[in-house]
Every structure is written in C-alpha cells, then in structure tokens.
Design brief:
Residues 2-21 have low confidence and may be disordered. The protein has helices at 2-21, 24-39; strands spanning 42-44, 47-51, 54-63, 69-80, 83-90, 95-102, 105-116, 124-134, 139-147, 162-172, 181-191, 194-203, 212-220, 226-233, 238-242. The chain is built from two helices and 15 strands. It has a 15-stranded antiparallel sheet that branches.
Length: 248
C-alpha cells in the first residue's frame, strides 16, 4: 500500500509539473519557426494564452509564399508525441482545419475552410481535403476540393460556378540551385451543365512570390461544345487561352 501511495503521489506531482512548468509556449514557438523556415509561410496572431491545454490564439493567420492566405478566429496548439497538434476554427464562416506535426511530417485536414487563394481570378474559395507534407524531403500528397466563384467572365468559355477536385503531388525540383518545388494537380471540374478534367503544374520561385503555372483543361460546356483551355502565367495572374475551337 505504501508503494502504491508513493506512486500516486509521484503521478500527482508529475501532473502538477506539466500543468505549471511545461514550456508550452517555447515548444509552440520552436515548431512555428520550423514550419515557417520549411514552407516559406508566415504565421501571425493577435493574442496568445498559455496554459495546461496548450497555446490558445485569437485572430490567427497564415500567409503562404504563393500569396494564398487564411484566417482563424480561434486556434489551439498543444504538444503531441514528437510534435504539435493544432485546431483552427473560423467561427463566423463555419470552416475549420486540424493540423499535426510529428517529426518532419505535417498533416493538414480542412473542412469548408475559407481561403484567399492569392489568385486574381480565383479570389476566395472554400477548401476541403487532406494533405501530407514532409518538411525535410519537401514531398507531399493529398486530395483537395474547392468551391470556386463564378468564372464566366474569366475563362474563354462561359462557365458558371464550379466545384474543383484535385489529386495533388508535391515534389522538389532536382538541381543545384535554390530549392524549388513542383506541384502537380490532376483536376476534375463539375458544375451545372459543365464538366472537365486536366493537369496543371505549379512551380515555386526561389525568390518567392506566385508560382508559375503550366497546364491545360478539357472543358465540356454542353451545347457550347468541348474546348481545350491552356493555362499559363502565374498563380497570382493566370493566363487562359483556347487551344482549339469547339468540337461536337
């Protein structure tokens, strides 16, 4: 019984140490610095509270090197085995995301997350999906779905609002120069009276800024025929052009 009482007292003291002395904020700040350095993202917040359940933030924001950005009204970061877990909530917009950093592996799960795409033509989108990215090897894979705004005045084909699904692969570009990544997206499009598919590549710039775009989409616009749309320019300022006329 004495041994059991000693063990119980040790557990109580250990729990008290975790609650009062564990360096939650230091662990959080080191993880943030590591993620920023590996991804080129900028993480910021207005208010932070540190406690036994981790670090609670208000008005948390993430801006990627591509120009894409999103904000969360509330965010909670807590230590996890060999890493950090986070929950991000867009209260007014009903969007949320969960992230987990374990070792060098960063996992993101988003559900109706409202994101400023950083693209002149795409504007603000709603993002749902899963993505896994390794901070060391700079490789990642995932599946994403986006609800796009009305693009009738953007594409060279009349197109209403669309849903976009993409299988995404992120790979480092070989070479001795500054590190760059290439993101390959196998895309499917769905909309009222419209469907399509294609492949689009994005290549990041060593100097930062919007990635370069290269690819094509095959769009079936129903009575208006099937069109191949070439994509160029950059993520921030895409360029769309018809590769061929309508076909029946």
């Amino acid at each position: 019984m004495r041994a059991l009482g000693t063990l119980f007292l040790w557990l109580v003291l250990f729990a008290a140490f975790l609650a009062l002395r564990f360096p939650y904020q230091a662990v959080f700040e080191r993880s943030v610095t590591r993620m920023e350095a590996a991804t080129g993202a900028d993480l910021a917040w207005q208010e932070a509270q540190v406690g036994p359940s981790g670090v609670h933030l208000r008005d948390f924001s993430v801006r990627m090197a591509s120009g894409a950005a999103f904000q969360a009204d509330r965010a909670r970061f807590r230590p996890a085995w060999k890493g950090l877990s986070a929950t991000l909530i867009q209260t007014r917009l009903a969007g949320r995301a969960n992230a987990h950093l374990q070792g060098s592996t960063l996992t993101l799960q988003a559900e109706d997350l409202q994101v400023d795409s950083g693209s002149r033509d795409l504007g603000t989108v709603r993002l749902t999906g899963d993505l896994v990215y390794d901070l060391t090897s700079r490789e990642g894979d995932g599946e994403l779905r986006m609800a796009l705004p009305d693009m009738s005045g953007v594409l060279p084909v009349p197109v209403p609002s669309l849903e976009l699904g993409a299988k995404v692969a992120i790979r480092p570009v070989p070479g001795d120069g500054p590190p760059t990544n290439e993101v390959t997206s196998e895309i499917s499009l769905f909309g009222e009276g419209v469907s399509g598919k294609g492949r689009v590549n994005l290549r990041t710039s060593p100097q930062g800024g919007p990635p370069g775009l290269n690819g094509s989409l095959q769009i079936d616009a129903g009575p208006l025929g099937t069109h191949t749309v070439r994509i160029g320019g950059t993520w921030g300022r895409p360029e769309w052009s018809l590769a061929q006329g309508a076909s029946k």
